[in-house]
Every structure is written in structure tokens, then in C-alpha cells.
């Protein structure tokens, strides 16, 4: 992927490095990680630490966000990669978060979408309805 430049209204040019993907982790809403409301914990430090350790900063952007919904499936994450959206639910353990990052690294190395591994497949749900009410997973 090449570098792109954007010219701002002020006339200054900013270099933009296109990302291969983006991982949104629900953390700031009403359910995900909210143990005081009887939801499973969510480890901000693990998500951020794995992202840093694997040097994904200029490849897959990490965003901690408010509600991604649906709350009944808390701890939700949304991965955009290679033009696809992959929704994950109930990422309630360190093992699942590490597996998610292993999966992301595999796709970064392959420079394309790959099907999720079996451990993560059990945690995928259709986040968006497509034409005629059909949803595509992965």
C-alpha cells in the first residue's frame, strides 16, 4: 500500500498511510466489560498490549468505542478487513482476544481476508443485514 497525501483547507499536506483494517472494541457502553452490571470483564490492557506487541499500528487501527450492540452479546468487537466486516460476540477470555489477534496477524501476512479459525467461528454473528434481509458472515 502506498502513501497518500491529503491537502487541508489551510493548504498544508498531510501524509496518510492507508490501513489494512480496523478493530473496534466495545468498551465504553452500557454492557461490554461492565462487571458491576453482571457482564463479563473486558481487558483494555490486553487488547492494547497485543496490538502494540504485534506492531499493528500502521496496519490495523485499534479503536475503543461505545456501544456496538447488541448488548445481549456483550463483549462485542467489530473487525473491518479487506472490505469485510466481521462481528464477534462474547470475547470474554484472554484466550479469545489472543486468538483474535492471531487471526488478524494471519490476514495481515496473507494481505487478504481469510476465514476465521474454529475457536473464533463460534463467536461470529451477522451484524448487518444485506439485501433482501440476508446477512453474510465473515
At the fourth CATH level, what is the homologous superfamily?
A: Glutaredoxin
Report the structural category. alpha+beta
CATH C-level category: Alpha Beta
Instruction: Give the DSSP E fraction (strand runs of 2 or more residues).
Output: 15-25%
Mean pLDDT: 91
CATH architecture: 3-Layer(aba) Sandwich
Query: In the residues, how many domains can be counted?
Result: 1
CATH topology: Glutaredoxin
SS element count, helices: 3
Radius of gyration in whole Å, from Cα? Answer: 16 Å
- Strand adjacency order, main sheet: 4-3-5-6-7
Any overview of this molecule?
This protein has 138 residues and is an alpha+beta fold. The protein has one domain (19-133): 3-Layer(aba) Sandwich (Glutaredoxin), CATH 3.40.30.10. Helices cover 22% and strands 23% of the residues. The protein contains 3 helices and 7 strands, in the order βββαβββααβ. It has helices at 44-53, 94-110, 118-121, and strands at 4-7, 13-16, 21-26, 60-65, 77-81, 84-88, 124-125. The strands form 2 sheets. The protein has a 5-stranded mixed sheet, with helices on one face. Strands 1-2 form a two-stranded antiparallel sheet. α1 (44-53) packs parallel to α2. The mean pLDDT is 91.
Strand and helix map with partners:
Layout: E1 4-7, E2 13-16, E3 21-26, H1 44-53, E4 60-65, E5 77-81, E6 84-88, H2 94-110, H3 118-121, E7 124-125
Parallel strand pairs: 3-4
Antiparallel strand pairs: 1-2, 3-5, 5-6, 6-7
Helix pairs in contact: 1-2
Amino acid at each position: 500500500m502506498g502513501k497518500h497525501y491529503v491537502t487541508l483547507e489551510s493548504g498544508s499536506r498531510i501524509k496518510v498511510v492507508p490501513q489494512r483494517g480496523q478493530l473496534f472494541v466495545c468498551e465504553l457502553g452500557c454492557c461490554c466489560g461492565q462487571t458491576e452490571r453482571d457482564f463479563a470483564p473486558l481487558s483494555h490492557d490486553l487488547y492494547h498490549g497485543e496490538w502494540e506487541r504485534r506492531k499493528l499500528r500502521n496496519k490495523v487501527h485499534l479503536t475503543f468505542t461505545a456501544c456496538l450492540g447488541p448488548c445481549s452479546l456483550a463483549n462485542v468487537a467489530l473487525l473491518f478487513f479487506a472490505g469485510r466486516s466481521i462481528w464477534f460476540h462474547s470475547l470474554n477470555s484472554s484466550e479469545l482476544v489472543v486468538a483474535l489477534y492471531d487471526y488478524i496477524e494471519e490476514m495481515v501476512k496473507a494481505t487478504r481476508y481469510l476465514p476465521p479459525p474454529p475457536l473464533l467461528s463460534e463467536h461470529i454473528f451477522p451484524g448487518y443485514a444485506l439485501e433482501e434481509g440476508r446477512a453474510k458472515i465473515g
